[in-house]
Amino acid sequence: MKKFLMAALATTVMTAAVQASAQVSPEDQIKFRKAGYSFMSWNMGKIKAQVIDGSVEYNQQQILAAANAIAAIGSSGMGALYGPGTDRDVGSQTTRVKPELFENFPDVAQLSGDFVEAANNLVAQAESGDQAAIRTAFGRLGETCKSCHDKYRKD
Amino acid sequence: MKKFLMAALATTVMTAAVQASAQVSPEDQIKFRKAGYSFMSWNMGKIKAQVIDGSVEYNQQQILAAANAIAAIGSSGMGALYGPGTDRDVGSQTTRVKPELFENFPDVAQLSGDFVEAANNLVAQAESGDQAAIRTAFGRLGETCKSCHDKYRKD
């Protein structure tokens, strides 16, 4: 059943990608997906500074806002930004994506689902305000980022 | 009272900006804020294609996901990305911001508040699924974007 769901999700990702490619140029698809990851990384950094490094004073509302941004970006259908022709640098846009990503959509859908689940969990923990739980949820989210980077992003 | 609130909000924006400047370089502040606007523009484009142009079939869940991303990014404390030294190009990062923005934080806070309110309203209308209401809410959101661009963004 899970395998079926993943295959269905992968089909959705690919359908969305094809649909998007009719709307957004490959160059802009790369630009937008990099923007999404970049903005998420700023928000990851804010949470890290508060609950891991302690270099910025803990502020629950800021953590929650950051978690919400990460979860909403992650749930916005970024699969549509991996359309045909986006597996290499295009125009002014460089990409670190490995070609293998485009040959493994079911696996990418699984990793993407893990990421969204971990991001939603971080939102829930941020709402609770339990700092230890936020720290654990943040670590878990970071692991789901790394799982995909290790497989499908060039160094 | 409203004036007081706006002044307080502006102070928050500036405090956050100063705090952020200790954490994130001016170059990265520009990079991250441009990433946020870029990712929002992709999501605005998706909604426009579905409810204004009609070039992509209407899909309530996609509209809601896009609206959520816009609202969450807009509520993530981007004021912190307008710290000292970010009023001009820095390193590899160019910016279209006008210097006037840095002299008018209370007005910027007001415009930013209008934007967040309109984005949250779009989320609410997307949840309702009423296409006419979504169209109106989308138009109102676009106006709040334009209000700030007209004043504080170079052509």
Automatic annotation (TrEMBL), chains A, B:
Which GO terms are recorded in the biological process aspect for this UniProt protein? electron transport chain
Annotated signal sequence range: 1-22
Q: Which InterPro entries match?
A: Cyt_c/b562, Cyt_c_II, Cyt_c_prime, Cyt_c_prime_subgr
Q: How is it modified after translation?
A: Binds 1 heme group per subunit.
What cellular component terms from Gene Ontology apply here? Answer: periplasmic space
Q: Where does heme c bind?
A: C145, C148, H149
**Keywords, ordered alphabetically:** Electron transport, Heme, Iron, Metal-binding, Signal, Transport
**GO MF annotation terms:** electron transfer activity; heme binding; iron ion binding
**What would be one Pfam family of this protein?**
Cytochrom_C_2
Protein name as catalogued:
Cytochrome c556
Where is the organism placed in the taxonomic lineage, from the top? Bacteria, Pseudomonadati, Pseudomonadota, Gammaproteobacteria, Pseudomonadales
